[in-house]
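Allow me, if you will, to draw on your knowledge of protein folds for a short while. I am sending you one protein, given as its amino acid sequence and as whole-number tokens for its backbone shapes. Kindly check, if you would, that the fold set down in the tokens agrees with what the sequence suggests. The record follows directly beneath this note:
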Amino acid sequence: MTSIMPLLFNANRFAAVKSVTPLEMERLGYGYGYVLYTTTINALTTPTVLTIPNVQDRALIYVDQVFQGELGLAVPDQPTALILQPPAFAAPTRATSTLAIVVENKGRPSGEVQDFEYARKGIFGIVSLGSNNNLTNWTNYKLPMTWEDLRGRLAWQSFVQGIGQKPAFYRGTLTIPDQQPLHTWLLTNGWGRGFVLINGFNLGR
């Protein structure tokens, strides 16, 4: 990989919708990919429980760009609550923090659906922090991950191996030798979760 664009530092490059509570993908007007939800919370001074009763399929939780954990139906034991830890580097006088939640859509049902409530993707309903503190004033960033949407939104910078800036977009070069292209495969060991595009064609997750 030669280039990188960290998502959380560049979220404003993507289309967004403001709302009181988080909006699922269907209400945002698309059906696949990811959604990035952000809101402002009081700065954490002690470990505090974040509760998201309804999220599909996998939610990655960050406070001030620091990864906190995962929630959702695609996570083992399907947890709906997570203890947020105050970021170690936070300034003691800081009054607020940014809560960011990246939700992955892992796919759609291909057969009979008994209850369409379980077919929705993203966060639907309230998100609470601590005891009875329902979070409001959300920004919902649309991340359908089509080349038509991504093209022109990616601002690349040099990639330095070993520097943690996830979640992020990465760019590299695939070289085909001077002969007829043949079937091949892409080795993704150590990549974690994500998707791959080659010349704008989405190979999948």
Helices lie at 25-28, 147-150.
